[in-house]
Specification:
Length: 136
């Protein structure tokens, strides 16, 4: 179901709780909501739809990918950029990494590990910041 975008900075600044298999329906809400905003958005975290769980979704080269409990375990190639967000007004400067290795759980809660680069890596970093309560 398409959910309303949360703009409450106090809520968004909270660190997300770990996701469990009971949270699988949240992934569908994220898919539906991101699809509804696809013209101006390439990723979302669960707190952006008012759910304080460590779940993200992003456009991975044309297909949506959901990650439960994502964590960046390695990063390299720092650079400065500016990003916008549906939950926050304007664009904000931030530091990102060209290459990141991410550990997460998939929809069956199997642990996965993969290196992402470029634009996809930047999207993932933005959404993991949301999970960590970092407002950029």
């Amino acid at each position: 179901m398409i959910q309303e975008i949360c703009k409450d900075e106090r809520f968004l600044a909270q660190k997300a709780e770990p996701a469990t298999p009971d949270d699988l329906p949240i992934a569908q809400d994220l898919i539906d909501t991101l699809t509804a905003h696809k013209d101006g958005c390439v990723g979302m975290a669960a707190n952006m739809i008012g759910v304080n769980k460590r779940i993200i979704i992003f456009d991975n080269e044309g297909a949506y990918q959901v990650m439960f409990n994502p964590v960046i375990v390695k990063q390299s190639g720092p650079y400065q950029t500016e990003e916008g967000c549906l939950s926050l007004t304007g664009r904000r400067p931030t530091k990102r990494w060209k290459s990141i290795k991410v550990q997460w759980q998939n929809e069956t809660f199997q642990t996965r590990l993969k290196t992402f680069t470029g634009w996809t890596a930047e999207i993932i970093q933005h959404e993991i910041d949301h999970c960590d309560g970092i407002l950029i």
